[in-house]
Amino acid sequence: MTTVMEKRKVEFRLVEDEQLPPIVITMNDNDEPKVIINTYHRIWISLNRKIIAGIIENLQEKMDMLLTGYLSEQRSFEKEDRIIQYEFEEGSE
To answer: What's the rounded mean pLDDT across residues 11-27?
Structure first.
């Protein structure tokens, strides 16, 4: 079975708002990633541009840890469900 991964769109928005942080990653109305860059903080963003770009590697590692933990938990639940199902089937024979 071959699956072709569709490249997902990322919406970018520029805003100027004293109340918002410099960069926000959120979701749009279609549940797609949206990045909001607040130009109110343009000097800070500019000074830290290389650090901000380097965050991606660390973010990927943290997301991988989060997902691995979640998937391990789900796998444990699946195994428990199968044991219970097997015991139930054995008991009804």
So the answer is: 97
User: Per the confidence metrics, is the pTM higher than 0.70?
Assistant: no
List Cα–Cα distances, 85 to 73, 79, 92, in angstroms: 18, 10, 11
- Specify the 3-state DSSP secondary structure of 7: coil
The amino acid at residue 86 is Y
Mean pLDDT across the chain, nearest whole number? Answer: 90
Residue 31 confidence (pLDDT): 92
User: pLDDT above 90 covers what percent of the chain?
Assistant: 74
Only one residue has tokens 């590692």, namely 61
What tokens appear for 58 in the block? 């660390």
In terms of phi and psi (left: phi > 0; alpha: psi -120 to 50; beta: otherwise), the region of 20 is: beta
Using alpha carbons, list the distances in angstroms from residue 4 to 1, 8, 33, 81. 10, 12, 20, 32
Other Cβ atoms less than 10 A from the Cβ of 38: the count is: 20
- Judge contact between 40 and 16, C-beta under 8 A: yes
